[in-house]
Design a protein that fits this description.
Number of domains: 2
Largest sheet: 7 strands, mixed
Helix content: 40-55%
Strand content: 5-15%
Structural class: alpha/beta
Number of helices: 23
Number of strands: 15
Length: about 550
Amino acid sequence: MKQKVIFFLYLIILILPNLILCYTESLPLSGKQALVLLPLGVYWTILSLSPRKSRTLWWMFPILFLGAFNIVLSYLFGKGVIAVDMWLNLTTSSPAEMGEMLSQIYPAVVAVVVIYLPTLIYATIDTARKTKLPASFLRKQRIAGAIVLAYAIPVSIYASCAGKWKMHDDLFPINVCYNLCLAVERQTQSEQYLDKSKDFRFNSVATDTDSVPKIVVLVIGETSRACNWQLNGYHRETTPLLANTSDLIYFRDCMSQSNTTHKSIPIILSPATANNFDAIYSSKGLLAAYNEADYQTVFLSNEPRNKSFNDHLAEQAQEVLFLRDHHSTTPMDSLLLPEIQRVLENSSKKLLLVVHTYGSHSTYSDRYERHHAHFQPDLVSKSTKENREMLINAYDNSIRYTDRMLYDIIQQLDSTDRPAVMLYVSDHGEDIYDDNRNLFLHASPWPSYYQMHVPMFVWANEQYRAEYTQRIALLESRTNEPIQTDCIFPTILGLGGISTAYGQDSLSLTSDRYKTKELRTYLNDHNEPLTFEKCLEEEDFQAIEKHKLRPY
């Protein structure tokens, strides 16, 4: 009797991820039935093929592993399966980042260990004992499995033909394996990038006749969401220095095209967009375009190297510095300031400086020194909805720290006596238990408003404003435009007076050929552009309406 109970216990553990997805995913009834019954019938049949059920379970260990992994992600993101981007994050995230994430989801990890580890221990012992199930019992279970499959297969065909369900998207573990194959394919493309892009040329030229060599600075933030910026109407003083900085041009309705760093940065630094992301595999980026126009180019970063396109695009600069190469622990963003000052002091020609900060990446309280803990309490032992107030305090402190750093960069630029302009934008935002979905962090399989709405501004000193009055006027006239991060690449080209056939003038905020987007798009996990209507939920549109932004 005990062995028969164990048989059904194995069956329940195998189908558990599907039961959870049946609850979390927005599928029609036929899709939910296919999601659960089709793999249930397969598992039931496989387990009944051999009397040594525990040995069979060990042969199915990959399914158990994927199931445990997916349960953890369901806890973290609320819905979805192991996405392509999540597989890539395993290779592009540093051990420190992975450790930080695991510290936030340990309740789910503990639950998975409690469910799966005793099962596997028992299966090991049972396999060694060579216990067997009765042949009569197995025959009945094979019949039961066949009955389930006889119902599930036509239901699956119906759901698929109705266009409401796709096996490679909606059936666990098929969808996870499909995503893994896509991740391997993309990683291979990344590894082949240098060879495929080596002959690419922008044929860019500098069209400005500078009497004094100009300075163009692009600062890329990390995990900073616009709704927590004082400049964006937030009730707290999170950007007090920038709020009192003259000549600041703030764009209030900027949305990121990706909620993952390894895709949002290429969109910022190259001609690739959500509608044409495949361009990244064979084209070069912003720094290469400026090199061709005879600029000095420098890339400074407080991000870890991640063996992705981020690194490839950064290495196209004439000088590259990753602070993490010289520090055993994650340094504060402020350590970039002396490097910026060094570059400015040693530069005598036209300069493009790209600075990539670590911004507000979790763990938030680690992104600033203790004397910058303006909002308290801010030290969180466990990231939960109950501790949201402390999480927000720490997050807001990290933004105040960014505010201080950006203000210091502006002061550095203002003291150079050269035309200088700086653009700041964050790669994506962050969920912090903001509504009844209880979402946390970023890079989820599906985006949210909080992950997409990012801060963006341009600052220019008096010398730049006096020499390029039309560009400044165009920028100032577009502060309420519904834009996305795909505007950064062409806008930075425009700020530097760089002309190239890849300039995408319709996206450039400095061009008189700029066109307001009819529909904004988001780059999903399969690198497909989705409209907001297809990728956001009711809670997101409520937040968009609250902040008086365009919902499409």
